[in-house]
Write a structure and sequence with these properties.
126 residues, 7-stranded mixed beta sheet, globular, mainly beta, 4-stranded antiparallel beta sheet, 47% strand
Length: 126
């Protein structure tokens, strides 16, 4: 059974950093595309970043390019989202997702992924 559990959310000041973790079980992380999505209050869910299966190819939303970094630790079956230079508009519930296919990131941004975690809340505020 595929399971994804996010952690690492919390309150951070503007300009600060936070690292989200996504612990995967029931499948081998490297065999799946991994994505991070977010949903702010009153807004639709949006794609943040993806990393392709069996590859280091990454894809980022324009709004986070240069500030966020997605990575994957295959030995620990865990994915990460390092968030730097955070802004109030980064406030959202962040979701980790996984998919056994291998498409470019924009595909998953528009169509979503097969498996989802329950999310972790990130608040950027002074």
């Amino acid at each position: 059974q595929v399971q994804l559990v996010e952690s690492g959310g919390g309150l951070v000041q503007p300009g600060g950093s936070l690292r989200l973790s996504c612990a995967a079980s029931g499948f081998t992380l490297d065999a799946y595309a991994i994505g991070w999505f977010r949903q702010a209050p009153g807004k639709e869910r949006e794609g943040v970043s993806t990393i392709r299966r069996r590859s280091d190819l990454t894809y980022y939303a324009d709004s986070v390019t240069g500030r966020f970094t997605i990575s994957r630790d295959n030995a620990n079956n865990t994915a990460y989202l390092q968030m730097n230079s955070m802004k109030p508009e980064d406030t959202a519930v962040y979701y980790c997702a996984a998919d056994p296919t291998s498409y470019i990131g924009s595909y998953y941004f528009s169509r979503g992924m097969a498996y989802w975690g329950k999310g972790t809340l990130v608040t950027v505020s002074s």
